[in-house]
């Protein structure tokens, strides 16, 4: 018991009390640290989304001891991220009205720790006493700060740049309207897209969704729509949608903006990130640890106001990715991906009012940022430290002019980190370009004649383009080789036909080809379903001579045909056909537009009219006036002419007739093994069928090609054969009235 003697207690008691005091202090500091981390995490959820920075500091052990007493200040509501937080999947970035208080605060010296200072503090640290200061001091060296852009309450009308995107998106939407309606409750082959933005997947009444879509659990916010439209099968494997997706960001951005607009302006961003009021982002943080920050008190009210207002959708018009690095002995920005890939300090450009998204990746570990001169606060990024760290910013391009972008870290701009940012005037509204898609009737391959069977290569490219339908009117055609009809193909019986079908990279649909001349699954369609950018190959042997139709056979097949995807292939018999003076290639089709016949402008496809077989236009070779005003047929008296005529359809039978002539020979239904008919006035040709007719021209003048269901003439179905030569009064004697 001598241990407890007065002398021993005098020595032991102070030490024990000191140790107990240290333990109590450590416990208090630990509670403070946890509370600060929780407050910082709550701040991330409540604060307005801001520009993002992912920072990775050099590896270093953090002190286990608490930060100085000043650190546990009362946290303001700022966009600080807790340690090791991972960035959430971001919706389409939107330009923030202003940087948050976290990014507005001037850079301050790192808070000293009792042991070695943390290198992580070298990143763009807030001022001492700032809400996130304590959390940063206690965090491990590797941190990730989430980045999202501010959602802005929608005004009465959408922003000008959004209107522009939506206008372009309305044109892109033509690729969707064959299967989808924008009217509530009106489902087609696909569900109605009315109000889709913000809607849960598989939540459209009276539509039978696939099990894959029902189980996807998706909500159609802007980001999810963008991913799904890029690759539907990748996002929802096993869904029933045959559409391959929109492969260009421009088209996806535009059509999403259009869907946002028709959905009432709500972007669905709330599903991807918490709502927050823009004013909150501008409120300065309170530095006093004793006073509750005004921003905190106002936050719930502001949040409620923000969540009750629909958010305007800001869809980037252009995206750039840059990486910091060393090249040519200096510090530089290096382009990543797209047309700027590998370029040093590449020229970046945008149009006035266009939303620009820029990603900066730290390529070598030094501290960097990026500033776009003249583009306001949103055009400046946070600092990033550590190789692989990154940040994203989004801003609206200002007035047209020549600006610079640069790194604002002292000395970096002079060391080479500077490039040109060119803002061009807002492009004029898209104008109608009347591209002639009509194939001239004279584009017939030469006769094959006598030769041995061989392998014949056929190259077809499926191209989607806006083309002339009539004077002052255009339509979105789907074509083989950019023309309607597709090219006439010519082989002989016994040939092996090797078909290479390439679907253009900018196509919005899967395409294929079905040859009525082929024997095998789908006439080749089973082997040629090509996604945009793909090439498919199929071979078949031409077994039976005759004139045959070929067409796209991708669902909905009638839609692909109605938009222009049809043509003819002639399989000559041994020795070929008897020679004639001229050969012409003519095909008939129907076009189903939402707008009535004769309306000018860019017309839309109408799936309901297609299904109800109510076309607005009937055409020879793809357009009104193709074989009358644009490319009339020409011949001379005494010549024998041959017509290779087919009906692409997809629905109507033709009563092919040449006004003023009698067909001397008719190879009925395209068959050439039977003897031809003679002296035929009108030939019936079904959809998907063909015929070969011949006529000897005895009298000069204009002869009119028609379908003798003559009301179709009033919807564009007419062609002219102009015959020159000496009069022949023995056969025809009369005064020809002007215009005939």
TrEMBL record:
SUPFAM superfamilies: Cupredoxins, Cytochrome c. Keywords: Copper, Electron transport, Heme, Iron, Membrane, Metal-binding, Oxidoreductase, Repeat, Transmembrane, Transmembrane helix, Transport. Residues 48-160, 275-302 are annotated as: Disordered. GO terms for molecular function: copper ion binding; electron transfer activity; heme binding; nitrite reductase (NO-forming) activity. The chain crosses the membrane at residues 12-29. Gene3D superfamilies: Cupredoxins - blue copper proteins (2.60.40.420), Cytochrome c-like domain (1.10.760.10). Coiled coil: none annotated. Residues 57-89, 97-108, 118-160 have a biased composition (Low complexity). It catalyses: nitric oxide + Fe(III)-[cytochrome c] + H2O = Fe(II)-[cytochrome c] + nitrite + 2 H(+). Its EC number is 1.7.2.1. Residues 164-263 form the Cytochrome c domain. Pfam families: Cu-oxidase_3, Cytochrom_C. Its cofactor is Cu(+); Cu(2+). Homotrimer. Belongs to the multicopper oxidase family. This is Copper-containing nitrite reductase. It comes from Afipia carboxidovorans (strain ATCC 49405 / DSM 1227 / KCTC 32145 / OM5).
